[in-house]
Prior knowledge:
This protein is of the alpha/beta class. It contains eight helices and six strands; from the N terminus they run ββαααβαβαβαβαα. It has two domains: 2-44 and 98-233, Ribosomal protein L4/L1 (Ribosomal Protein L4, Chain: A), CATH 3.40.1370; 55-96, no CATH class.
Amino acid sequence: MEAPLYNQSAQAVGTVQLPDKIFQVPMNQDLLYQITTSQLSNQRQVIAHAKGRGEVRGGGRKPWAQKGTGRARHGSIRSPIWKGGGATFGPTKERDFKKKINKRAARKALGVVLSSKVNDGQILFIDTIQFANQKTKEADGVMKSLARVLLGDKTRKVTPKTLLIVPTNQEKKAIERTVCNLPYVTLMEARNMNALTTLSYPYVIMLKDSVPVLEKTLENKKGRQERAAASTAA
């Protein structure tokens, strides 16, 4: 399929060819739910931790004799029934919330998200992006001009959260200093895209050179083997 191509001045300059296996994937809500919830679980940091009786300081000596005092028997003042004792069945930092994510499922989920955004007009493709003066004000003007194309509303003052995709780390470093102070823009390399991050942003602006990088990243081993076999046979 083809999509309109713009320059950083928000002017149409042509079209860009998009691979159907990435930008024409049918919607699969069950897959999206599984992948996004798994990614959220994998990002979860276990902080809450309650000390048990073996972790609380002190209590090594038996408080009084087992027999002969008339009082209840106790082995440690750090027992859970004592004040200052350890917690019983409290949360521990040894909990593991990580879930396994199959690579092919994660690739397909990203394709589902990208396809949905293309169909809804939430992705804008640009040929290149360069800032002559390396000023945040300049970057703000460029991003707002591109946002107007996505929104179709030139009177809107609030710029929505946007994910800016660049093909390589070299391009990222070239513009990172200029856009890093824009609170509504997040810069990311194409090879690091995932379903959860892409879904978190209403709009995506992607450099056209990011498309082949994304295609190479998302292709599975089977596809590479098939193309290698075809080229060998030819």
